[in-house]
Automatic annotation (TrEMBL):
UniProt keywords, alphabetically: Methyltransferase, Transferase
Protein name per its UniProtKB record: SAM-dependent methyltransferase
Cited Gene3D superfamilies: Vaccinia Virus protein VP39
Domain of life assignment: Bacteria
SUPFAM superfamilies: S-adenosyl-L-methionine-dependent methyltransferases (SSF53335)
Protein's GO biological process: methylation
Organism of origin: Lacticaseibacillus mingshuiensis
């Protein structure tokens, strides 16, 4: 298989849920000043009615091992909804199909803990589904995520979610009546071990690489390969922010 054929194969590689295990050993990301899983575990109580927004394939949600009868999730992408119906719904988890990512079909004041890892932020409805005293824990992808790499492939690239910044979202939290308890933002360096890993990554995240086409990208991919062979690391930067908020009693 030629190098170009291997890149084409990476662009066709299927993914279910939100699972990047295909890149194990082929990428590395610097740690953030916080750990989202630790934040959730710190605030999750055994008796909490818990809602996980935009749960993907449920991989992260299941890692917390919360009582299924007390766990609800939302998901908007049809393939993931089908997957969740086959995997977690039979265990007792409640699934709210939410293709519009608005939470409109989620009951009011039903949850003690709401979490959101890289999902939508319909703030008015998030506040609505929270009980008084409930907590909301989220980690989000900043609007400038992977900006340099995206611009490398497309000189006219404009971020899809430019308003997704800590300041903007924190202001929306307050406007929705939530009280911010903790907030932080950071940039984490991410390094790819091979060009094929970048192809896979760009194919799986079309909102950051909206014009990515494997054939059109071949000259750029060869440039990356030349840089890699010259000893330059293939790096980009992940933009992240976190907020913990509560609904006042």
């Amino acid at each position: 298989m030629t190098l170009e054929d291997s890149w084409r194969a990476e662009s066709r590689h299927a993914m279910h849920g939100w699972d990047f295990s295909h890149l194990n050993g082929r990428w590395q990301t610097e740690p953030l000043p916080w750990q989202y899983e630790a934040l959730v575990r710190r605030h999750m109580r055994p008796a909490d009615q818990w809602l996980d927004i935009d749960t993907g394939g449920g991989e992260l949600m299941q890692s917390f091992r919360h009582d299924s009868a007390l766990t609800s999730v939302t998901e908007g992408w049809a393939p993931n909804i089908d997957l969740l119906r086959q995997t977690i719904v039979p265990t007792g988890v409640t699934l709210y199909a939410d293709p519009d990512e608005t939470l409109t079909n989620v009951p009011t004041e039903a949850f003690d803990l709401v979490t959101d890892s890289h999902g939508a932020l319909p703030m008015t409805n998030i506040a609505r589904v929270m009980r008084a005293g409930a907590l909301f824990v989220t980690q989000q992808v900043g609007g400038d995520n992977n900006y340099g790499l995206s611009r490398f492939f497309d000189e006219e690239y404009v971020p899809t979610y430019p308003k997704n910044t800590l300041l903007q979202v924190a202001a929306e939290f307050q406007a929705a009546g939530l009280q911010i308890l903790e907030a932080n933002s950071a940039m984490a360096k991410m390094t790819f071990a091979d060009v094929g890993a970048i192809v896979y990554y760009a194919t799986m995240i079309p909102w950051e690489f909206p014009q990515f086409d494997i054939e059109r990208a071949m000259p750029k991919l060869h440039q990356l390969q030349d840089l890699l062979e010259a000893g330059m690391p293939l790096q980009t930067f992940e933009s992240r922010f976190m907020i913990i908020a509560t609904k006042p009693v």
